[in-house]
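Following up on my earlier thread - several people asked me to post the actual chain instead of describing it. Fair enough. Here it is, all 164 residues.
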Amino acid sequence: MSAETQYSLFVKILTFDRTLQREDLQKIVIGVLYQDGIRISVQTKDDFVSAVQQSGVKQILGKPIECIPIAINGSSWPEALENRGVEILYVTPVRAFDIESLADRMSTEKVLTLTGVPDYVNDGIAIGIGTRGEKPTILINLDRAKKQGADLSAQLLRLATMVE
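Reply from S.P.:
Thanks for posting it. Predicted structure:
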């Protein structure tokens, strides 16, 4: 599924997260986590960042969106994420990387995780986009989403497929 479609869907999904309505939240920073040197990861990052920049959607719930790429390599990933002010982390396809550890860390830091890799939702990423036939499917790991601080509306949950 294209990065443009994913971004469009994620923007709509995020409007159903009541925590993003906080008054103290001035902007929504989306980090795009990728592995430098892994072609599919770099390409997905480039495509997603481009989709954010070229989209007509520059705000979520009236708050401006800022998108920052975050390169990770091996065990240095925690340091790569520090002090970035990220509220949302989009995870690209990565190799030899412990997604569950990342999801645990984001739960501690209350950073909501998103991905276009459906299997990552089983590994602890909170929200993903998959496909069923030709149609996009919203996948939600509700337990993880709650641990990461999300407060998702029942309306969204009715539209999604729950993953554990």
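The first strand starts at residue 28 and ends at 35. That should answer part of your original question.
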